[in-house]
Predict the 3D structure of the following.
Amino acid sequence: MKKGFIFLLTTVIILTSASSTGIVSAESLNEINENIKEVEKEKEALEQEKQQIEEKQSDVENNKADTNKKIEENQGKQKTVKEEINDIDQQLTTTKNDIATKENEIEATNKEIEDLKNQIEELKKEIKALEEKIKKRDALLKDRLRSIQQNGGDMKYMEVIFGAKSFGDFISRTISVTTIMGQDKDIMEQQAQDKKVLEANKEEVETKKIEVEDNKVALEAQKEELIALKKQLDEQMAERETLMAQLEEEEAHLEEIILSYEEEQSVLNAEAAAKQKALALAESKKGDLEQLAKEEKERQEAANKAAESNNSSEPTTQASTGNPNGIFILPANGRISSHYGMRFHPIHNVNRLHAGTDFAVGTGTTLVAPADGVVFRAGWLGSFGNVIMISHNINGQSYTTVSAHLSRVNVSVGQVVSQGQAIGATGNTGGSTGPHLHFEVHLGGYGNPVNPLPYLK
Ligand SMILES: [Zn+2]
């Protein structure tokens, strides 16, 4: 009975001893290894996302290159069409000049025809006048001959002939009458000759007129041909101008597409940069966890050794709150001078939430990042004085930490920091009555403060 109790007690002691050292350490090591696996998964996912973005970037780059090629082709076409337009324009100018020349020629021809018509009219008049003269003289001559035959002669001839004073005078007078009659006949013959000349002239002018009129018809035909050519050129020109307008519109559209690709590129570039940063963060987190695992393993081995040698002394660690479940290391080491919670404000005479934990540390003490994260506020902020706010993502939960009243800030907004990295120095700036670090923890983004102690190691 007694022997059995001792055996049981020994077993309990051994089990208790085991659970308080080896098992707890193993659990914590498992947890770290689990975290490493999670970070690796996260990294893998990020790599995949990064690859997808790179594929998209490559697609957009190709599309952009294609579009630029289309723009080049379009500009080549525009050049050709412009050259064609210049060519047609020159042809049009030539054709218009040709038409003007033809019109001048036709105008000259019309004048010539008019002149010839006038000449013909003139000749006709002259011919008619001569005909009348010839007709009159012919009638006169016939009258004289008739009166000589019927009445022994024209009275005037008779008077001239019979008024003779002697035979000699009679002969002389008869010769004179005959001479007069012969002269009439000569004049008449001359006039007939003149008429023939005029008629020949008239015929010549009429032939000339027909020639000129034929020429005019030819000129009109040439002009019509030129007008038809011009019409054709105008049509070609209109076609090219329509084509040109289409090409210009297409080019503007392609330029718009290029712009939209460039916008897409800038978005993808920003996304790729963000993924790169997240990857760097995950890498750094993984390194820290591996270091932690190594340390934990060493500690476990040391603890096992200690257990073997039945030595219960614990290895001393760095300054900490002694909380094994904490996720943040102390940003600065010091005695807690004020806790999180409602407290009476002696000046404002009200109860107010003290949203953080105060640590009594001297001005200029190095401030370290409590965990891996990205700085999103660094510098002066009202009663906080100089403050650093960091966004953390730990095991799928995001946290925001605030370190206030700092004397120095060594990080900037957007900077990625890793746990333990020196980021500034504590101080007494803003609404502070003595040198201390005011440290806050928020779940998620800023605005949801919780007691920092359970989260501090
Ligand atoms: Zn405080």
User: Anything to note?
Assistant: The longest strand covers residues 397-406. The CA atoms of residues 376 and 413 lie 5 Å apart. DSSP finds three helices and 13 strands in the chain. The longest helix spans residues 2-151.
